[in-house]
TrEMBL record:
Gene3D superfamilies reported in the protein's UniProt record: Phospholipase A2 domain
Domain of life: Bacteria
Keyword Cell membrane: no
Record-linked InterPro entries: PLipase_A2_dom_sf
Keywords: Membrane, Transmembrane, Transmembrane helix
Regions that span the bilayer: 221-240
Organism (species): Nocardia yunnanensis
One GO BP: phospholipid metabolic process
UniProt feature, compositional bias: Polar residues: 14-24
Region feature (Disordered): 1-30
Protein name as it appears in the record: Phospholipase
Gene Ontology molecular function: phospholipase A2 activity
Amino acid sequence: MRAFPDSRRIPPRSTDSATASGTPRGSRWPGLRRAAALTAAATITCSVGVAFAPSAGATITAPADPENAAARTAILESVALQPNPALVPDDFTAAAGYRPVVEGGMLINPQGDCSSPVPLPAEFDLACKSHDLGYDLLRYAAAHGQPLGPWARQAVDAALERRMHTACDTRTGTLSRSECQIMASVAATAVDLNSIRQDYGNPIYEPFFEHTGSGPSPATLTLSGIGLAVGLAVAATVLLRRTRDALARVVRAERPAVAL
């Protein structure tokens, strides 16, 4: 994960200066140690959803029926760096009710959005619209009786995650960029969990509070995501503030006294 920026430790000028002030070496960086613990906890929490996901090799299996060749080509084009909208199937527009367009270097559904009960950063807009197109292409293939294999939904979800994190890099503020990266990880985890629930197959509509099979309802996943987002946001804020305060204290302690 890239949720937290690297912090540089400023070494003391000498061993004597570390002990002369009466401060034990072990307690010189209490803020940073607590911040590191928060970082580890946040990383473990974010990794839970991914840790129990099936491996790529285990889920990418050959479909029972031949895949829809046109939809397969369009899916690969939708996750490409320089997509060509002309490769979208000719009858897709009539079936989906819109014509895909290229915007910001992405092939997107111009009518799509980030359909999330939790407000997501505005920078995610194009990534969400491209993800919507990918799912519509999966539905298109299934409607023609030639669904695509799990690889297709995995590719669409992976592109969403990559593009959200890339969008966060445009932010200049360290704290703002970290918060954006956290929301990208939370959103990507929620999407992955839902795809796992549906076995990486055709995206289907599920009532928000209704259980499907033995898995949790979308409401349960959403509430879990909200809790995860709040926890990680707090951890990031505490980490950055404690690191900043610790560095400021070290700089003040090591600044040479001005002779009067």
